[in-house]
Amino acid sequence: MDSDTLTRRAPIRLGDCHAFGLTDTGRVRRENQDRFLIDAALNFVAVADGMGGHAFGARASATALDCVAGKLADHARTSGVIDPEDPDATVQDACACAMRAATDALNHANATLHAMNLRERLAQRSMGTTLTGIWQPRGAASLVAFHIGDSRLYRYRDGKLMQLSRDQTLYQQAIENGAIEHLPPRNVLLQALGPLPSIAPVVQTHAWLPGDRYLLCSDGLHGEVPHGEIEAVLAEVTSRGIEETCRRLVALALDAGGKDNVTAVIACF
Predict the structure, then answer these.
(1) Count of the separate structural domains present in the chain
(2) Which residues form the domain of 62?
(3) What is the full DSSP assignment across the chain?
(4) What is the pLDDT of residues 237-253, one digit of tens each?
């Protein structure tokens, strides 16, 4: 593996799963603008793929992950706390609260990056980032998944790999509208954190089962490696072998050309 590969030394335990991540600059790009986060304290895993040219993309992806993690930490500290002086206070649905917290965290990250773009007059070359994450709030039975851009979330269960996220790209929109000719480039984003003052992120819940394997990855992986090959690799993973699985996925992307930064994070229940 290339010397600029960044990796965790060992899988990290998060609640009911183990997670491991690997990222590589690839064979063409000079800088790695991908970032990932595995936060054991929050039970939170995320991948961000920055954009905006040299330095700006890496800054955007790192800033977005920090912003989201910070907001989720705020939620973890205050969830379930009822103001004794508020006579109308009630216990709220934990899942709905977690989904709102995830939405608020993404909106906060977007506002932070957008303000940086305005303050530094980056309108002609706005920095931004995709972000895809899964979060299991303490005591929650389900995962909260959130997504903006074209980094993906997959789930491998019962021998099948399912894409849980939907690419927010012009290409995906054209395909869904029935276009078969003169398709736009695959990497033109309809949404990202940073360039615009408002976003419409996708936030969902997914019930996990023992044996589930979740893959979060940037388009440097899913744009280079076919669905079936990813499925075959994930079919062989165990909680003790997710490091090697991440390495195999990244190696497949590099062998296919490695035209972009490539990041793979696996959470194995």
Answers:
(1) 1
(2) 6-80+91-268
(3) --TT-EE-SS-EEETTEEEEEEEE--SS-SS--EEEEEETTTTEEEEEEEESSTTHHHHHHHHHHHHHHHHHHHHHHHTT---TT-TT--PPPHHHHHHHHHHHHHHHHHHHHHHHHHHTT-GGG--EE-EEEEE--TT-SEEEEEEESS-EEEEEETTEEEE-S---BHHHHHHHTT--SSPPPTT-BS--BSSSS----EEEEEE--TT-EEEEE-HHHHTTS-HHHHHHHHTT--TTSHHHHHHHHHHHHHHTT--S-EEEEEEE-
(4) 876 699 999 999 999 99
